[in-house]
Design goal:
It holds the Pfam family ABC_tran. By secondary structure, this protein is mainly alpha-helical. It is built from 3 helices and no strands.
């Protein structure tokens, strides 16, 4: 994960390296942000997050690579 880019950009990077189409990428990222309760932090730099929030971003990066993912909560 990269501390000098936003939460959204960190998640997006995981999809870009797998060449996921732009609309599919956006759809997956919005769902992941919502599922992991990170929507309010999407524009924050990773270095500004707590340890638990960083762990959720890391989990989101893993989820982003899968077409289907689980629901938390």
């Amino acid at each position: 994960m990269y501390p000098n880019i936003t939460v959204y950009q960190n998640l997006e990077f995981a999809l870009k390296i797998h060449k996921v189409e732009k609309e599919e990428c956006k759809r997956r990222l919005e769902k992941i942000l919502e599922t992991l309760n990170l929507t309010a932090y999407r524009d924050r730099l990773l270095r500004q997050l707590s340890g638990g929030q960083k762990q959720r971003v890391a989990l989101g990066r893993g989820m982003a690579k899968k077409k289907q993912h689980f629901s938390v909560g």
